[in-house]
Records
---
Amino acid sequence: MACLLRPQLQISPARVFSCSGFWAAGRLPQRTWLSTPAAATAAATEPAASAAAQQLVKQRQAAASARVIDSVGSSINSSLLAGVGPGLRLPDELMPASKTGGTRGGMSRNGSILYNGRPVKRLIQKLKQSSGRNHSGAITVWNRGGGASKFRRWVDFHRRLLPNMPAVVRRLERDPTRTAFIALICYRNGTLSYVLAAEGLLPGMVISTSLAAPNLRMGNAVQLGACPIGLSVFNVELLPGRGGQLARAAGASAKVLKRFADHTLLKLTSGEHRMVPAKCLATVGEASNVAHTHDRLRKAGQSRHLGRRPHVRGVAMNPIGELRPRLASRVSSTSSTTRRTTSSPARTLW
């Protein structure tokens, strides 16, 4: 049965296969796909070709309905979000929050490429909340408590689990304990692991740990001795085999300044210059979620979800002497000074 684009209009499979690339790109008008009744009769006799034509129509409709519109009105095709075209880089657009009273004024990053489901169960562990108290129950950090329960993701900072074996990025996820995104990768033998995601990394890309022959592709882990001068890296080890300790936050990176026989000179984001052994591993690129600095909380409840309780300034508290001696002495000295300066001048007889 021939595929119908419009009521009483049929498509020619022959023209579909000859111009499939233009169909996917949307460069030809839809009227050029109309066929004659003879072509429709020929299509009915070729069920395999008709099924392929129907599949192409469904793909075109899905691509048209899955477009993402960012804050400035430009469109990003869903094929980019699905990992098609590994050389392309997704922009860090910011989407304005809802205009309701509870969320007005907030900004958040577009999370269309992030996975919203549950993490891998064997790669997480529940975190115990201390609420700012020590082992004896005394409050040591004020304004902490409550919030949503968190699970620690076991992130592979070493990147030495299966060296020289390629791994496919399955999805990108958020980690509640860090600002950068993490990527779930699957090695060739089926092993799953979490790693820090590089900026621009998309599902479907292939990354690896290159020890023998360094491959300077985005997201690959290489030795610092093989990095050219000027390359940006993150998740840098301080000692070989210890795991990445430098430049792990969102948007962080270190720049290779100079290479020596056994060490490499790096420039950190803070401007510090640091010598690191040349056999230490580092990931090519910069940490993901560069737009994290522009995020703003949408409402007061979002701060409570993060485990932050309301903060009260000390000078606004009740000046009780035995509980807040410094504040009480400050208030008493201020009041006595005010009385001396505002007292009326001495009266005279004349």
---
Amino acid sequence: MNKTTELVFSKAGIPLGIPIPTPIDVQYYIVESVIGLMAIFGNLLVLYVILFRRGLRKGHISNLYIASLAVADMAVGLLVCPFALLNSVGLPRDYTLCISMQCILLWAAAASIYSCVVVSVDRFIAVTKPHMYQSVMTRGKAQALIATSWGLAFIIGFTPAFGWNLGRPEEERCFFIEIVDFTYLAFFFFFVIVPSSIVVVVLYVIIFKAIRAQLRQASGGAAANKKTEPKGADDKSKDRAGGKRWKREVQIAKVLFLIVVFFYICWYPLFLCDSIMAFSSIFFPLPFINCLVYLSHANSAINPFLYGIASQEFRNEYKAVFLKFYCCRKRESLEVQSSDVQTKETNSQPKTNEEASDAV
């Protein structure tokens, strides 16, 4: 008689007794590694141009919020993607280290979400109350808002470590669905992602309504000015400066709106599926969940490209950095070539009588 071994499953539906680490999913490792590397180097470039390039270092306060987002995105590449790769094979075996890894992932996600909210509040004030913006939104207040958003994200992200989890798994291994309670993920979706997205949508609706009203007012004012007495040179220069400043605020609002919308497009599907699995017997296939994980992590890798596509300032700074790197490399290669040529010319010169006699 043939003896058959029946598989025993954990509460999360993963077989017990399987060897840890489990076999590597090559496709998953390749995709996550590529996303992680792109997130690291892309966001390093963003932070470099903001912190060290004169055009952006002394630029707009909104660059601080972009830097905050870049730090969160780089954390995805440095920490979240490697943790996801370890998690996919059931590592680490230590429970404390395992749950800390999951919490760091959630912390990075929450930090990005709250950074998007802070960005939206900043644009709301800049566009709807442009005359008050510089006094209301100082550099110190912006830094305090960023610190508060990261602190709140830490509290939300590390909540599972303080008890809201599934407890120690039946075996010493680390799989996300055996550690993190799906009801917590539902809470994360309905009380973190959804409310923040509603706030962002409401703020940007008001922002774009204000932009439309301002454009109508500007066109009406231009028509009225043609019929009235011409303004003096000082009045014209003030109007021109104010118009340029407001146009810049609007352009920044459009750039950040694109970034915020793309963020929610990337993260909504994953947490929505987690919420469905939390309150129903529906379980989505692993390849489908992996695709949603790719999408959420890819957000961190694509953001640096979005900054360059949507913002002329970032595009110019990117070009300057690449040209500087390229020119330096080219100069080094030319110096090496010239030194080689000089060496060859020196060696090929005929020896003098004295040198010849010395050689003899």
---
Amino acid sequence: MEAIPVRFSGSETDPAKIQAQIVAGHVARLGDAHEATFSTDQYSFLRDTSSELYRYYRWLVFCYRNGIDMIRLPEIEAHYLNSYVRPAPLGYLDLSEGDKSELLVLLAQNNSSKESIRDLRKWCLDRSHSMAAVAFIVYSYLVQVMQVPQDPACFSRIKSTLYALNDVFFNAKSAVWRGPYTSVLPPAEESVPINVTAPIFDYLPTIVFYSLGMAQYPDQRQSVVGLVNIWLSRDFFAPHMRETLQATLSASSPPPPPSCPTIYPVQLTARDLQLFQQPKDPAPPAYPDESYAAHAAALDATQAPTSS
């Protein structure tokens, strides 16, 4: 989840602010997919996701969907320290500090035994919602291991970690958007399948290249090549990813540094959400002010814009 400023510097009559309110009302009622119907230049702020106006718009969607009383908005802003929390993309929710430490312990304890690999794989897939954060920690762990090549256990730790990744790949289809941090999500969203291999792949070419470089004996190198060939023979990755991985096996120079995608911090809890929810009411949610209600009614009367 991402912390997003909720204030917008424009005045209450600012046309851009009114447009954001109109779109937020429709998207809150009809779903995120409805955002695509606002495709004209008039709504260009929807394509600039880092802008102040877009962040304000997403804050409004959050408020409308959760029945937040807009009269209490200053109180809510104070509670969230002027921030808004929106769902992270699938797989990109951050891990808690406790889970980060636990994952490092599991990586260090992995000795290639069936039990240790199983425990590590299950732990990771149980946190599918945070696979990008898991991948970053695995990558960071291997970087630390590789910094001590004279350690007799260095390559053994690398190989054990690759075996654990292999187990994750083979069981990846069981992963869904669920886990310890998803209690605030609507139940229907918790079983959405999630691609856990894509976040891991951000680091995989670099991991494979340097793992091959750490191999001191032919059998060590072959153990890495053998795993990669298994991955290439399966449908774990998209075609362009398989090409990149294949090229890494014979590369003489390291691949580009990992892109390190954005990982969204955990900030919203079910209790936080409850604090500002209005009592359940079958009536439509209240909107922030009369100016919005009037504009929304006018837009409803003429029908929402369609894609050009």
